[in-house]
Amino acid sequence: MRRDGATHGCVAVPVEFAKLAFGQAKLGDTVIVTKGETLDVGQAIKAAG
After folding, report:
1. Has residue 29 been placed in a domain?
2. For position 23, what pLDDT does the model report?
3. More exposed terminus of the chain, fewer Cβ within 10 Å: N or C?
4. Is residue 42, in this structure, part of any structural domain at all?
């Protein structure tokens, strides 16, 4: 795995994005990684497919 594209080997993201995500999320928050789709607060999550 490339050093510049992984966070603990779970989800491969660029380091700068990881810093942003970890800076915004608090312990206990649900974080959903998508391919560009965003959700509004309370919006239902669509199943992949």
Report:
1. yes
2. 92
3. C
4. no
pTM for this prediction: 0.44
Question: Using an 8 Å Cβ cutoff, are 14 and 4 in contact?
Answer: yes
Concatenating the DSSP letter of every residue in 12-46 gives ---HHHHHHHHHH--TT------SS----TTPPPP
Q: Which domain holds residue 22?
A: 1-35
The yes-or-no verdict on residue 48 having pLDDT over 80 is no
Reduced to 3 states (helix: H, G, I; strand: E, B; else coil), residue 16 is helix
What are the pLDDT digits (tens) for 8-35? 546 777 888 888 888 998 888 877 777 7
Would you say residue 22 lies in a domain? yes
Residue 19 forms part of a structural domain? yes
Place of tokens 């510049």: 4
Number of structural domains the chain divides into = 1
